[in-house]
Amino acid sequence: xxxxxxxxxxxxxxxxxxxxQILHLTRNEYIKKALEHMNDKIRNLxxxxxxxxxxxRVRQESMKINxxxxxxxxxxxxx
Length: 79
Fold this sequence. Notes:
The radius of gyration is 26 Å and the shape is rod-shaped. It is built from two helices and no strands. The chain has 79 residues and is an all-alpha fold.
């Protein structure tokens, strides 16, 4: 396991200490959980972006296919 040294504003550290006490965690556990939470949040945002990009690509392909079907239907049913 690695060791990290941080420089934090006094107020931020005081609040972290207070919240860690409320949750019955050590400051180290609290900071570790905060980092895990941020990593999870960013990972979920990245996943959402990938899903949205894939959805846009599928939508574009779907529109092309629908246009092809419409052309075929028009060819089979001349007006």
